Amino acid sequence: MAAGTVPPGRLRRRLTVAFVLVAGVSAGVLAGGSYLMLRQARLDGSVQRAAADARYQLVLAGQFVPLTDGRRAELLASFEGSGRHVVLIAGDTVASNPAYDPTPGPTLRATVADGQLGYERTGGDLLVVGGRIPGSTAELYAVTDEDDLMGGLEQLRTALAIGWVAVVAFAAVIGHSLARRTLEPVGRASRAARAVAEGMLATRLPVRGRDEFSDWAAAFNEMAQALQTKIDDLSRAEARERRFTADVAHELRTPVTALVAAASLLADQLDALPDDARRAAELLVADVVRLRALVEELMEISRLDAGQEPLTVGPVDALSLLRDLVTGHGWAARVLVDGDRAILRTDPRRLERVLANLVGNAVAHGEGELRARVTRAGALLVYEVSDEGPGIAPAQLPHVFDRFYKADPARSGQGSGLGLAIARENARLLGGRLSVESRLGVGSTFRLALPLVPVQPLPADESDRSTRGDP
Questions:
Q1: Does an H or E element contain 39, and which?
Q2: How far lies 71's CA from each of 29, 88, 98, 129, 346, in Å?
Q3: How far is CA 468 from CA 73, 304, 380, 387, 465, in A?
Q4: Is residue 207 within 8 Å of residue 217, measured between CB atoms?
Q5: Phi-psi domain of 195 (left: phi exceeds 0; alpha: psi -120 through 50; beta: other)
Q6: From CA 313, how far away is CA 317, in angstroms rounded?
Q7: What is the SS3 assignment for 253?
Q8: What gap in Å lies between CA 96 and CA 87, rounded to an integer?
Q9: Could you give the CA distance from residue 378 to residue 34 in angstroms, rounded to a whole number?
Q10: Is-contact 133 114, C-beta < 8 A?
């Protein structure tokens, strides 16, 4: 996967998480706000009811003034008998029920001392509302048990929490479903794009409705159709080019054979010709030889294009074959051969064809030390031919193995520009990869990597990729 891209499913998860976050936060804020408002309303209502009841109790307590010891006891017994718990502070503090005996805080005591009605809540879910008994300095505090109220609020909080969890779970399910349905066209488009990239040019997207995805699908289909038309045109043009090459090579073969025979006879008579005629005859013989080489290369590349070049596989001593080739072509004085000994099964004739082209190219265009070596790299056998020549410009490297391409325009008079292209096709038939590395002013290294065991020939597109320097 290319860097920066989003793996399949990650965008769907992001959308689902975003949907859940929005729903969860919204539901949480709504539930929390509702709980706080309801809680405050319930607590305020409890205070109002307790305050109203406390005022009534203070009026009733005024009937027991003056508060003698006997009247105090009657007051406390009267309130406790009516189901109300009170605390009386008249010098000392006395509770009507020892189980409900909170100690009023200083703030509440100060409010009551000013003649006002005050309240406070203790930690035990008790609401204490107090005031001064009319006609007396005594203080009476009514105690209300809010356990039921707090229990109800606790149940409400639990119910809201469960409801929030349910909303989040439901939002997750809905969000996942919506994200899947929303991104389904994106997934179809991704699969269609991969299919087109793999060569299935007839791939199209369904166009449904009138939304943005439909417009996208229609634009994709138009692009795919234009691409298919363009590639079909290019394929037909390439087929015509190959057919033209084959036809030209076939038509030239017979007259060139006759020219070669005549040139051979002329070459035998060069010494008998006058000096001015001898130079013209030598040029003629050289051009006929070049023409024959061009026709042979055209014939060979036509056969390669047509798939009419069978392999004859056998055991080959990799290092000995390279040395014999260099010696046989008279390059031993310029090319240093070394490397590892290894036996591989391949077609020796085609391997020689590739190596002869690489070494001959180094001899013709290279400078300095020329080296041809064999090394083992795991399951591969690698031939390397290097020179210390002027090198090849980076802009020209991708085209080195193209047909009729010459990296140096000054070499227009040498070769046909088909040698490296033929070498690449032969390397593909052998199941290998041909690549080149070069630096200006340093030199070039051509590399042929072959499997140590026979394999199927590489597809043409794989061979093309190998020319860009892949190992």
A1: helix 10-61
A2: 55, 12, 19, 22, 125
A3: 109, 21, 19, 19, 6
A4: yes
A5: alpha
A6: 13
A7: helix
A8: 6
A9: 72
A10: no
Residue count of the chain: 471
CB 428 within 8 A of CB 460: yes
Give me 144's structure tokens: 């209300």
Distance CA 216, CA 199 (A): 21
State which amino acid sits at residue 443. G
pLDDT in tens, the chain (471 residues): 444 444 546 777 888 888 888 988 999 999 999 999 998 999 899 899 989 988 888 888 888 888 888 888 888 888 888 888 888 888 788 888 888 888 888 898 899 888 899 999 887 688 899 999 888 888 889 998 888 888 898 999 999 999 999 999 988 888 888 877 777 777 777 788 888 888 787 888 888 777 777 887 888 888 888 888 888 888 887 777 777 666 666 666 677 777 777 777 777 777 777 777 877 887 787 777 777 766 666 666 666 666 666 777 888 888 999 899 889 988 988 889 988 888 888 888 888 888 988 888 888 877 788 899 999 888 889 999 998 888 888 888 887 887 776 665 544 445 567 778 778 888 888 888 888 888 888 888 899 998 887 544 544 444 444 333 343
221-249 burial code (b ≥16 CB/10 A, e <16): beebeeebeeeeeeeeeeeeeeeebbeeb
3-state secondary structure of 362: helix
Q: What CA–CA distance (Å, rounded) separates 347 from 69?
A: 128
Q: Whole-angstrom Cα distance, residue 372 to residue 383?
A: 7
370-403: b (≥16 Cβ within 10 Å) or e? bbbbbbeeeebbbbbbbbbbbbbeeeebeebbbb
Q: How many CA atoms are closer than 13 Å to the CA of 160, on its beta-carbon side?
A: 18
- Contact residues for 422 (Cβ-Cβ < 8 A; gap 6+): 297, 300, 301, 304, 353, 357
Strand order in the sheet with 335-339: 335-339, 370-377, 380-386, 443-451, 433-439
- 3 state DSSP class of 117: coil
CB atoms within 10 A of CB 429: 21
